TrEMBL record:
Organism for this UniProt entry: Vibrio agarilyticus
Alphabetical GO biological process terms: D-ribose metabolic process; pentose-phosphate shunt, non-oxidative branch
Gene that specifies this protein: rpiA
Role summary: Catalyzes the reversible conversion of ribose-5-phosphate to ribulose 5-phosphate.
Identification of the protein by name: Ribose-5-phosphate isomerase A
Binding-site positions, substrate: 28-31, 81-84, 94-97, 121
Length: 218
């Protein structure tokens, strides 16, 4: 099975958590794209979606799924999204697709975070995947220096502007043994919009695409 086939297995398996008549929180990325395709088969049975990126919004709308403004929705039952890394405690690194800020917002209004990944994303310690940090452009150099003090090697993601008009620093060479503490420290730096550590709001359900099919851990 290819990695994309494992992503597809995870994305389609998430469909069983979608309640009829509901508004669904939808993340961003290649795994979520499979979930969106699956959701298209239920488009007449759901009310719509709240999306975490322009890319996902376009894909949802192309399938005829209504996309609601996050401000018009009080709460969501489920949020379905991928991850770049996930540990056994269900803390995640996210933001490989630069959508981390909106992802964190939609996750925050959702009762249940359903993480869909292929089996290459499971790690013992977070940090092999460079940790994305979305920053206000004028704070980029200052925050890079602060991230070095925290033990990382930040690299400016050239040519990428987020949906919110900001830039991304990818922090290499971090061994993230206390994800919540690091999330707090980076969040406290002036100019940081969002750090791609999802530890305070981790996943509730993990669906892993494997060569044997989708495995669900609740
Ligand atoms: C985007 C994300 C994605 O969920 C993460 O990058 C995983 O992507 P993919 O499903 O393409 O492997 O956080 O900002």
């Amino acid at each position: 099975m290819t990695q994309d086939e494992m992503k597809k297995a995870a994305g389609w398996a998430a469909l069983k958590y979608v309640e009829k008549g509901s508004i669904v929180g939808v993340g961003t990325g290649s795994t979520v794209n499979h979930f969106i395709d699956a959701l298209g088969t239920m488009k007449d049975e759901i009310k719509g979606a709240v999306s975490s990126s322009i890319a996902s919004t376009e894909r949802l709308q192309a399938l005829g799924i209504e996309v609601f403004d996050c401000n018009d929705v009080f709460k969501l039952d489920i949020y379905v999204d991928g991850a770049d890394e996930i540990n056994a405690q269900r803390d995640m690194i996210k933001g490989g697709g630069a959508a981390l800020t909106r992802e964190k917002i939609v996750a925050a209004i959702s009762d249940k975070f359903i993480c869909i990944v292929d089996d290459t994303k499971a790690v013992d310690v977070l940090g092999q995947f460079p940790l994305p940090v979305e920053v206000i452009p004028m704070a980029r150099s200052y925050i890079a220096r602060e991230l070095v003090k925290l033990g990382g090697d930040p690299v400016y993601r050239e040519g990428v502007i987020t949906d919110n008009g900001n830039v991304i620093l990818d922090v290499h060479n971090m061994q993230i043994t206390d994800p919540k503490a690091l999330e707090d420290k980076i969040n406290a730096l002036p100019g940081v919009v969002t750090v791609g550590l999802f530890a305070h709001r981790g996943a509730d359900v993990v669906i892993t695409g494997t060569p044997e099919g989708a495995k669900i851990s609740e």
